[in-house]
Amino acid sequence: MNPVKTGGKDELRTEAVQKAVMACCLCQYRCRILLCICTPCILLGCLFIYITLAVCLSINSSTTPVGMPRNPPLPPFFIASGLNKSGILAPFPIKSFWKYDLSKEAHWNLIQYVMDRQHSPILHPGTNASQNISDLDRYSRSTQQSSGCFPNYEMIWTVSDYFSLPAQIQRFVISMHCRDYPLLIDQPRVCSKHQSEAPMLLLAIKSQSSNFENRQAIRKTWGRSGWVKGRVGKGGHVRRVFLLGTNHSGHNPGIKKNLREESNRYGDLLMWDFLDTFFNLTLKDVLFWDWFSKNCWDTRFVLKGDDDVFVRTPALLDYLNNMEAVRSNTSGQSKTMEDFVVGDVIASAVPSRLQSSKYFIPDSFYKGMYPLYAGGGGVVYSGALVLRLLQVSKRVHLFPIDDVYLGMCLQRLGVVPIHHPAFLTFDFPEGEAKEHCANHTVLLVHKRSPKEIQKLWVETLRPSRKCRNTVLRDELLEKKKKEQEQNL
Ligand SMILES: *[C@@H]1O[C@H](CO)[C@@H](O)[C@H](O)[C@H]1NC(C)=O
Ligand SMILES: *[C@@H]1O[C@H](CO)[C@@H](O)[C@H](O)[C@H]1NC(C)=O
Ligand SMILES: *[C@@H]1O[C@H](CO)[C@@H](O)[C@H](O)[C@H]1NC(C)=O
Ligand SMILES: *[C@@H]1O[C@H](CO)[C@@H](O)[C@H](O)[C@H]1NC(C)=O
Ligand SMILES: *[C@@H]1O[C@H](CO)[C@@H](O)[C@H](O)[C@H]1NC(C)=O
Ligand SMILES: *[C@@H]1O[C@H](CO)[C@@H](O)[C@H](O)[C@H]1NC(C)=O
Ligand SMILES: *[C@@H]1O[C@H](CO)[C@@H](O)[C@H](O)[C@H]1NC(C)=O
């Protein structure tokens, strides 16, 4: 600023004095601010230097002096201290519960491990454990080839001994990523309501196009659709579908025409466009679950079985009605049936390693035990469970053996199948078949020819006086056990 020279000397002097006073005030003021700001800065600086020195010193002192033992290497897994085998406390993990070396894993275990990791709520906390269906749908679509299911030949190199394996497992390995097969014959109205009441039981029977005789026997006997009276109880509405794949191997167009006619006549065939082989049976499960969720979702029970079983449908309806009553007695009604599955439960099974066996699963494909599962000859589960199975199946890679696959899905849902001795998926134990009323003690028995099925139906529908009051095998076995205990 340039002072305008208008006044005399005095004026200039006073101005200078004023300026000096102002400057002095300003200086004091600045000094105070400087002091205010700088003191903490200086203190912080000191602290910083102190900490730096302390850290440097401690690093220096922690480098092992000559002669002192070095720290042992970190253990490969963490063991919480304070727990050991001797106490009442839980045993500590003596090895890690996650996998270290995946290179020795079998093919299925390896790809499932990857999928399990992708859905782990610990590794991926963002993904909800009760993830919604559309998320899962998107995932399953992205892992499949959406435009048709072509063999994935890259898989050949992930199974160490692929070229020495039997053809059926080879075929499974290159096609197991796909479960997107179109429905060729549909029955959208099978589960339509009868007087506003949804069916009680849907019979879903695995058949093959050539097994016309078996289907006829079932249609005429235990698989009749409509209202079925219970043996003692009120019974329920029963519906029936046969689950079929295609048979392109024969190049026999006649079969296709026959099947169309059969389907028009009986309205009970479901056919998907995949090859109907033993190792493709799991496809029938997952595709049926999908179909069920769209067409039959309010049906209360499903029996999934082979077309060479005999089922005492009236007795089964009594059993199921009873189970519903018992469960709704104890707590809320619909929820309690969500984990209902009953059959011939097999525990601690291991894969067959016999090359000649129909069930052969090589070591390079699957390692470990099978989960608890119900024999695939015939198993009954609730409709509510089907919807859950469909969801969880999108996170479980297909496995060649269908009942084991169901077990794998149940395991992931935390559902334990109920064992019922009246489901005889391996026929009677020796000697028991000869007992006079044996045929009246079962709910389901495997294997029976179409002729036997018809004979059994007549026999069990009108029991002789002696067999009229025969109870199911589970009660009989318990009675025998009690008698034995008393004799001891
Ligand atoms: C377990 O802990 C107890 C008490 O803490 C100790 O006496 C015992 O030696 C430990 N056993 C083992 C196997 O470490
Ligand atoms: C997970 O989903 C449930 C039900 O859909 C919801 O109530 C819950 O808040 C979700 N949790 C997270 C972390 O998103
Ligand atoms: C389910 O996921 C879709 C897509 O991520 C999302 O738009 C939708 O809001 C989700 N629904 C629920 C109930 O979380
Ligand atoms: C396929 O067709 C052939 C010839 O018609 C027949 O022998 C074979 O049993 C059929 N297989 C199945 C699974 O239906
Ligand atoms: C299952 O069916 C598909 C489609 O027809 C076929 O490509 C595949 O080879 C079949 N798998 C087995 C194990 O037969
Ligand atoms: C339901 O509970 C009642 C009382 O506890 C009992 O009397 C009845 O027998 C039960 N019904 C069934 C089907 O278990
Ligand atoms: C039980 O059924 C079988 C057919 O599966 C039949 O051969 C047998 O005679 C029946 N038993 C009796 C006691 O009727």
Please render the helix and strand layout as text.
Elements: H1 9-62, H2 107-118, H3 133-143, H4 167-175, E1 183-185, E2 201-206, H5 212-220, E3 226-228, E4 236-246, H6 253-266, E5 269-275, H7 281-295, E6 301-306, E7 309-311, H8 313-330, H9 333-336, E8 341-346, E9 373-382, H10 383-393, H11 402-413, E10 418-419, E11 423-424, E12 444-446, H12 450-461, H13 473-487
Parallel strand pairs: 2-4, 2-6, 4-5, 8-10, 11-12
Antiparallel strand pairs: 1-5, 3-4, 6-9, 7-12, 8-9
Helix pairs in contact: 5-12, 7-10, 7-11, 10-11
The chain binds 2-acetamido-2-deoxy-beta-D-glucopyranose (7 copies).
Can you give a write-up of this model?
The protein has 488 residues and is of the alpha/beta class. Among the domains are: 75-123 and 130-142, no CATH class; 183-424, Alpha-Beta Complex (Spore Coat Polysaccharide Biosynthesis Protein SpsA, Chain A). It has helices at 9-62, 107-118, 133-143, 167-175, 212-220, 253-266, 281-295, 313-330, 333-336, 383-393, 402-413, 450-461, 473-487; strands spanning 183-185, 201-206, 226-228, 236-246, 269-275, 301-306, 309-311, 341-346, 373-382, 418-419, 423-424, 444-446. Helix 6 links the parallel strand 4 and strand 5 (269-275). Helix 10 (383-393) packs across helix 11. The relative contact order is 0.09. The site of one 2-acetamido-2-deoxy-beta-D-glucopyranose (NAG) has 3 residues, from helix 3.
